């Protein structure tokens, strides 16, 4: 440990002042006399006792709360790994459900189309019967023997239960 010297002197020599000197000088008593720095004959030194000063207790002896930071990091990574695991399995399940939905629609399309065709045929024969009842003849509207799907549907104005 180094000793810091605090020196207080009044200097009267005509030597130029040394800017690196650790000497602290007081103001001169008479301003007419030149004021310079030089080594004094007597110094007042402020140094520690032999064996040094006693240790200063600046830290409280409180036990650390919680776990070590490494345990928190490990726990965080375990939780994140579990989350990623569940997320990727959920994405895989959603993809499988979407694929199953697409294939079920593909396989149900012919069944739904056949049901719609039966409904169209039933409506067509009902319209033909209504025309024959109203007009009395089976007149063709189009100049073709091909079946043409109707573009509009008749809806009754009054419904009977």
UniProtKB/TrEMBL annotation:
InterPro entries: GRIM-19
Protein's membrane topology: Single-pass membrane protein
Any one Gene Ontology cellular component term annotated for this protein: respiratory chain complex I
Pfam families: GRIM-19 (PF06212)
Transmembrane parts of this sequence: 70-88
Signal peptide from the UniProt entry: none
Keywords: Electron transport, Membrane, Mitochondrion, Mitochondrion inner membrane, Respiratory chain, Transmembrane, Transmembrane helix, Transport
Subcellular localization: Mitochondrion inner membrane
Homology family: Belongs to the complex I NDUFA13 subunit family.
Function recorded in the entry: Complex I functions in the transfer of electrons from NADH to the respiratory chain. Accessory subunit of the mitochondrial membrane respiratory chain NADH dehydrogenase (Complex I), that is believed not to be involved in catalysis.
UniProt protein name: NADH dehydrogenase [ubiquinone] 1 alpha subcomplex subunit 13
Organism: Penicillium desertorum
């Amino acid at each position: 440990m180094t000793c810091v010297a605090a020196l207080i002197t009044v200097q009267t020599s005509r030597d130029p002042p040394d800017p690196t000197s650790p000497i602290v000088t007081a103001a001169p008593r008479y301003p007419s006399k030149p004021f310079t720095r030089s080594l004094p004959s007597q110094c007042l030194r402020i140094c520690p006792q032999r064996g040094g000063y006693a240790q200063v207790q600046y830290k409280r002896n409180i036990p650390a709360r919680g776990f070590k930071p490494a345990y928190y990091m490990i726990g965080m990574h375990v939780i994140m790994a579990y989350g990623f695991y569940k997320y990727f399995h959920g994405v895989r399940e959603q993809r499988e459900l979407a694929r199953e939905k697409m294939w079920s629609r593909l396989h149900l399309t012919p069944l739904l189309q056949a049901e719609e065709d039966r409904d169209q045929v039933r409506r067509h024969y009902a319209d033909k019967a209504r025309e024959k009842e109203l007009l009395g003849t089976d007149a063709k509207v189009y100049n073709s023997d091909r079946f043409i799907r109707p573009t509009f549907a008749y809806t009754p104005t009054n419904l009977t239960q």
